[in-house]
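User: quick one, sequence for these tokens?
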């Protein structure tokens, strides 16, 4: 067994917890499938599949501790006691994960009940990333350099006066690097750093866990209820569960333009803001501001969380552009947790199918604001574009 392991069931992105809570309540009998996508065409050395399988099998031993349950109950009151009791009894089932290696190519799929399988995506990506660097014997920067880089970035962001969170679990270099980054970010009391998407590290360092929902929430609704209803029903169901809490809406699953057609005055007032995750950030800011103004809502009372491939230069450009127009905050991922002198991996894991009542698989689709990020069955992509009147 390698020295790499997961030591907490909460070593995961917070939006996986919040979505799991919603799925348990609304869709407890739905079966889904996820697939690993190697966007960066990375090569995996011989035996990678066996090493990954060994760690995945070990994850069945993880359980929510009493202290972790107390942390969630205190920090996240919108996660009610029945869900926390469920999470206390939950464990990973490694049989839901299929791992196959052919030469240097890796295939990973996850299939099962949605409320159970929803927690696999982020830890699997983090494990694949860490194992990739370890098995290829790639040497990273020293701990001191990682800490120094992070402190320098935090200082620059403090000077800009913008709030930011650490969003880097899924493509982190390793658990140790993310731990170093969190240690550096929490050193200064007077800081604009507001929290982490990683629940385990948020608890460890006494900061807020940050997140709402991911693309899969909308992708599921598209497959289950149809593309035209996906955004509206996904938001409506979110409101049904959280009643105004966790009020940041993800905007680009079926393009931002389509989203804003359905993000009506009710949603625009109820949600605190929106998250940008693809396409030109300045163009997105203009569209968001214009949308609020059309509904007689002052954009300065709302905000955008930017989270797409951010570095300091991008953050500075966006901050200056949006100043005095709309509130902004930033979720910075890979640039914090995988800036270690090596090339970061470009890997994702996506919901690819939802099983219907007659046991047929309905492919899911994601139509990002960047065409290169379209994911799903090509025929379904064309069908979604036709239904939603999206032209290239």
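Assistant:
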């Amino acid at each position: 067994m390698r020295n790499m392991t997961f030591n907490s069931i909460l070593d995961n992105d917070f939006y996986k917890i919040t979505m799991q809570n919603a799925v348990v309540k609304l869709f407890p009998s739905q079966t889904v499938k996820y697939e690993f996508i190697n966007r960066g065409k990375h090569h995996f050395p011989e035996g990678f599949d066996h090493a990954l399988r060994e760690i995945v099998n070990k994850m069945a031993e993880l359980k929510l501790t009493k202290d972790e349950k107390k942390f969630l109950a205190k920090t996240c009151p919108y996660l009610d006691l029945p869900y926390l009791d469920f999470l206390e009894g939950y464990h990973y089932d490694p049989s839901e994960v299929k791992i196959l290696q052919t030469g240097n190519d890796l295939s990973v799929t996850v299939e099962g009940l949605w409320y159970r399988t929803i927690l696999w995506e982020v830890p699997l990506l983090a494990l694949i990333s860490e194992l990739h660097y370890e098995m290829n014997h790639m040497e990273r920067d020293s701990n001191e350099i990682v800490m120094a880089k992070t402190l320098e970035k935090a200082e620059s962001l403090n000077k800009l006066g913008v709030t930011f969170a650490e969003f880097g679990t899924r493509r982190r270099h390793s658990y140790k690097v993310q731990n170093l980054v969190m240690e550096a970010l929490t050193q200064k009391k007077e800081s604009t750093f507001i929290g982490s998407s990683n629940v385990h590290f948020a608890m460890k360092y006494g900061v807020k866990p940050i997140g709402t929902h991911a693309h899969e929430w909308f992708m599921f609704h598209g497959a289950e209820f149809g593309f035209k209803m996906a955004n509206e029903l996904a938001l409506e169901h979110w409101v049904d569960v959280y009643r105004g809490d966790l009020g940041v809406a993800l905007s680009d699953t079926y393009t931002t333009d389509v989203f804003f057609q359905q993000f009506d005055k009710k949603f625009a007032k109820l949600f605190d803001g929106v998250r940008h995750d693809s396409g030109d950030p300045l163009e997105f800011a203009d569209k968001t501001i214009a949308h609020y103004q059309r509904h007689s809502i002052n954009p300065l009372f709302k905000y955008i969380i930017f989270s797409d491939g951010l570095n300091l230069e991008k953050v500075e450009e966006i901050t200056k552009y949006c100043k005095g127009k709309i509130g902004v905050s930033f979720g910075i991922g890979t640039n914090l947790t995988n800036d270690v002198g090596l090339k970061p991996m470009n890997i994702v894991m996506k919901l690819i199918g939802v099983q219907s009542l007659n046991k047929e698989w309905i492919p899911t689709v994601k139509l990002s604001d960047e065409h290169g990020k379209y994911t799903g069955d090509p025929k379904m992509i064309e069908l979604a574009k036709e239904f939603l009147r999206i032209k290239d």
